[in-house]
Amino acid sequence: MRQKTNQRGTNQSGTNLSMADTKTDELDQAGLRLGNLGVRLARTEAEIDAAQRLRYQIFYNEMAARPTPEMAARCRDFDRFDDVCDHLLVIDHDRGDGPEGVVGTYRLIRRAAASLAGGFYSASEYDIGPLEAYPGEILELGRSCVDVAYRTRGSTMQLLWRGIAAYVWQRGIALMFGCGSLPGTDPKALALPLSYLYFNHLAPDALRPTALPALYADMRLMAPEEIDKRAALGQLPPLIKGYLRLGGFVGDGAVIDHQFNTTDVCIVVKTDLVTEKYYRHYDRQNREPRAGAAPGPGEPDR
After folding, report:
1. Is the whole-model pTM more than 0.70?
2. Share of the chain residues as helix, strand and coil, in percent rounded to the nearest 5
């Protein structure tokens, strides 16, 4: 169980819990607010606990994922990566400025954090060697979720994307990746979106993760000429469509995740467009101090 402290410190095993370093203040100072909502990195163990509680509510209570006995007892979604990652939060300041205000979250894992955890999360499903060999900083995204009461407000997911854009820009991250999920564990029922992704958005060889042999599910379930692209896009979750709008790619092979009742694909996004949009905002903000919040790299409304 995580040791409770006021500020992020160390857990009972002595692992460093703060990978946020001095850049945390830069993100906090970026002025990422939309009305009563703001986005920043978690600062305390209580805020991380609130993010894990929200994740449990969404993934296990709403989406019927299968928790471990310890997760079920605590009503928290957690794993070893939570101790070393950065937790991006959307805070409803009308509810409070701390853990009581957490209404959205994203988990961000960089190289240094992954090395402390024994590797990236995606490596449990994919051979991500080509991504790990990519020069410069890389970032794994995961555990994205938004409180049900805030999903019809595009500002919540928009703020998460803006926070990611600021994080990427401030840290010089060149590549983002992570597992995107489609609902259900029957690839045949997902033949249209999986085939569309493979034939239209397959990553180039140098950036292509491949599902581990024991988990590999072929995405080529329809011939290219049989694919109705418009219908396929309609079946994709908004989050995956958001990545595609950024020029995202997918790896080779889907993976069935029985714990979460999903079929996963590995998403890869070069951050050129993300940083370009944020830089344009930052430059404009410097010239026009009252300019609004940074435009995000896309606005999927999960």
Report:
1. yes
2. 40, 25, 35
DSSP string, 30-75: T--EETTEEEEE--SHHHHHHHHHHHHIIIIIIS-----HHHHHHT
Query: Can you give the pLDDT at residue 279?
Result: 57
CB proximity list for 56: less than 8 A, separation 6 or greater: 67, 71, 75, 76, 77
Share of the chain above pLDDT 90, in %: 72
- Only one residue has tokens 């402290």, namely 5
Residues in the chain: 302
Diameter of the chain measured on Cα atoms: 58
Asked if residue 257 lies in contact with residue 263, where contact means CB atoms within 8 angstroms, the answer is yes
What is the sign of the dihedral through the CA atoms of 78, 140, 212 and 133?
negative
Taking only the tens place, the pLDDT of each residue in 132-179 is: 999 989 999 999 999 999 988 778 988 998 899 999 989 999 999 999
Question: In terms of C-beta distances under 8 Å and separation of at least 24 residues, what long-range contacts does 100-103 make, across chains too?
Answer: 100/50, 102/47, 102/50, 102/51, 102/54, 103/37, 103/54, 103/146, 103/147, 103/149, 103/150, 103/156
Question: What is the spatial distance between Cα 227 and Cα 210, in angstroms, rounded to a whole number?
Answer: 23
**Cα separation of 4 and 11, whole Å?**
8
* Gap between the Cα atoms of 30 and 10, Å rounded: 27
DSSP character string of 154-223: HHHHHHHHHHHHHHHHHHTEEEEEEEEEEESS-GGGGHHHHHHHHHHHBPPGGG--EE-TTT-B----S-
